[in-house]
Amino acid sequence: MISTHLDNFTVVLHKPKYPGNIGSTARCLKNMGMGKLIISEAGPFSPAEMKIMSTHFAADIVDRIGYHDRLGDALAPFQYIVGTTSRLGSARGPVLSPREISPSLAELSRRNEVALLFGAEDKGLSNSDLRYCHSVVAIPVSEKLKSINLSHAVMILCYEISLAAAERKSVFTPKLASSREIEGMYEQVKEVLMEIGFLNPQNPDYWLMHIRRLLSRTGLFSRDVKIIRGICRQVRWALRNKNS
Asked: For the chain, what percentages of helix, strand and coil (3-state, to nearest 5) are there?
């Protein structure tokens, strides 16, 4: 029997193109005991077209789809965000397989809302999209054919999570800061680091990405975010008083 904390997982489809793939994704979620689906920067799509592939079994998930005009808004409420990619490289950071990451996600979901983020069928997620993510997942595939259908990728990741959730024992898991809190902190960090000359003003977000990766490994709580933002405010106060 699948644990009820799978309700804390939400699949976020960023810029999906085909209603059939969205409907198939809804059916995969129903199969795995998950029920929340968000679409970012696309749609709205015809419910009738999506339900052809979702079938009546997952029609309720289609009816509850949430639409957002900006990815940042779609991800704002979540405490942990997992991005998916088929492209590897240093710019994408460390990448785990679904089986490697699923036990920790099952644990986190006990007290945190977790977003599983998937990109468009043709392009996937950009480096800019991945900046919101705490971790990145790639599904191991044959070199003969690396691309995976969107709903198939969703099914593989959700299956591994549901399997890990069924095997995990209940332990205390702390609640992390939300993406909304984290993004506000990073904006403040960027402003301060640019003011002191630490970030290259020509491309500050590129250098900030390394700081994001460093801090995302620790799992920041709300109080951690407040401390870091307090340090930023104090640094700016010290700079202005020194200059005056």
From this structure: 50, 15, 35
| Domain 4-167, CATH class in plain words | alpha beta
Look at the alpha carbons of 100, 210, 202, 74 in this order and tell me if their dihedral is positive or negative.
positive
**Model-level pTM?**
0.78
Cite the DSSP H helix spans in 55-203.
59-63, 71-75, 98-108, 127-130, 150-167, 179-195
By CB neighbour count within 10 A (0-12 exposed, 13-18 middle, 19+ buried), where does 139 fall? middle
Pick one of 1.10.8.590, 3.30.450.20, 3.30.470.20, 3.40.50.970 as the CATH number of 179-243.
1.10.8.590
Tens of pLDDT, residues 93-141: 778 999 999 999 999 998 899 999 999 998 999 989 999 999 999 999 8
What lies within 8 Å, CB to CB, of 215 at 6+ separation is none
